[in-house]
Amino acid sequence: MASIVYPLDSGRDQGRTAERGTAYSWARFVREWVLTVDHKQLGLMYIIVALLFFVISGLQAAVIRAQLMYPNNSLVTPQVFNRLFTMHGTTMVFFVGMPFIAGLANYLIPLMIGARDMAFPRLNALGLWLALFGGMLLYSSYFAWAGPAGHGSAPDVGWFAYAPLTERAFSKGTSTDYWILSIIMSTISSTLTAVNILATALCMRTKGMTLARMPLFVWMLCVVAFQILVALPPLTAAQVMLLLDRFLGAHFFDTAASGNAVLWRHFFWLFGHPEVYILMIPGFAAVTEIVPVFSRKPIFGRAAMIGASVSIGFISLGVWAHHMYTVGLPSNANIYFATATMMVGVPTGIKIFNWLGTMWGGRIRFNTPMLWCTGFLFQFLIAGLTGIMLAVAPFDWQLGNSYFVVAHFHYTLIGGLLFTLFAAIYYWFPKATGRMLSEKLGKWHFWLLVIGFHATFDPLHFAGLLGMPRRIYTYPTGRGWDGLNHFATLGVIVQAAAILIFVVNVLYSLYAGKKAGNDPWDAWTLEWATTSPPPEYNFATPPVVRSSRPLWDVKHPEDPDWKYE
Amino acid sequence: MADAAVIPLSAVEDEARNLDRGKVGVICLITTEVALFSVFVTAYLSFLGKSLTGPTPAEVLTVPVWATICLLSSSLTVELAIRGLRRGAAGQFKLWLGLTILLGGEFLRQTGIEWRKLINVDGLTISTNVFGTTYYSLVGLHASHVVIGLTLLLLVFALGLKGAHLHAHERRIELLSWYWHFVDAVWVVVFTVVYVIGR
Question: What pTM does this model have?
Answer without folding.
Answer: 0.93
